[in-house]
Amino acid sequence: TTMATATNGIETLTEPITVEQWAAIEGPPNYELIDGHLKEKPAVAVWHDILLFNLLRFLANYIDAETLGKLVGATTPLKISAYRGRKPDIFFIPKSLYRFVGKNLFKGIPPLVIEILSPSTEREDRVAKRQEYARLGIGEYWIVDFPNRRIEVYKLRRRGKGTRRYELVQTASGNDVFRPGFFPGLEIPLAKIAPEEFEDRTDE
Questions:
Q1: Is 152 helix (H, G, I), strand (E, B) or coil?
Q2: Is 122 helix (H, G, I), strand (E, B) or coil?
Q3: Contact 133, 153 (CB under 8 A)
Q4: Are 38 and 17 in contact, with CB atoms under 8 Å apart?
Q5: What is the model's pTM?
Q6: 164-172, long-range: CB within 8 Å, 24+ apart, which pairs?
């Protein structure tokens, strides 16, 4: 609708758009910021959101019980650089980083980011975002590969000449119980987060 365009202020912005300008845009549509240019986030399948909420429930219950911090994501802007920003499916803000929470932008470095793969975003999640999150210094990156029923845990390792790269340190698949080292004592039965009955739906 014209109203949405009129209220989100996009037409008044000139490229390159800064991360602060991007974060202030009110959606929909939902954008990420790549080198000063807006890139619309594709819509996701229903199973993606079911999986997201199922996973969030396990994580949030643990984080609340241990009073560790807050989970945000999907529409929460994360600053990557002055002209680059992402909206991860889930990221974790520990209490020690609350001071980096702005009105509409998180400017800190979260210790954990999680992306749920969709066919349209798999390459971006596995290549571009993985490089960006490593450069930013995010300690752990989980990729939830629903079509293959797998969670992959990547840890940031320092390499020579100051470079940092993710290394696969753990996978859980099928009906495994996922026990992430990041959250000691947490157990997530994959059978309880994977929405099997919805994965093959098509809109015929």
A1: strand
A2: helix
A3: no
A4: yes
A5: 0.90
A6: 164/134, 164/135, 164/137, 165/134, 166/130, 166/133, 166/134, 166/141
Token pair belonging to 161: 């000449």
**What pLDDT score was predicted for residue 58?**
97
Sheet holding 164-173, edge to edge: 69-72, 90-94, 112-116, 140-145, 150-158, 164-173
In order along its 204 residues, the chain shows pLDDT tens digits of 333 343 456 668 889 999 999 999 987 788 999 999 999 988 888 888 889 999 999 999 999 999 999 999 888 999 999 999 999 999 999 999 999 999 999 999 999 999 999 888 889 999 999 999 999 999 999 999 988 889 999 999 988 777 889 999 999 999 999 999 999 999 999 999 987 776 565 555
pLDDT, one tens digit per residue, over 114-143 is 999 988 888 999 999 999 999 999 999 999
Helices (runs of H) and strands (runs of E) counted in the chain: 6, 12
Asked if residues 151 and 144 have their Cβ atoms less than 8 Å apart, the reply is yes
Evaluate whether 115 touches 142 at the Cβ level (below 8 Å): yes
Cis ω for the linkage preceding 94 (within 30 of 0): no
Of 180, 198, 25, whose CA–CA distance to 104 is shortest? 25
Whole-number Å distance between alpha carbons of 181 and 178? 10
Structure token pair of residue 19: 């991360």
Residue 173 sits at φ, ψ, to 5 deg, of -145, 170
Give the chain's radius of gyration (CA, Å). Answer: 17
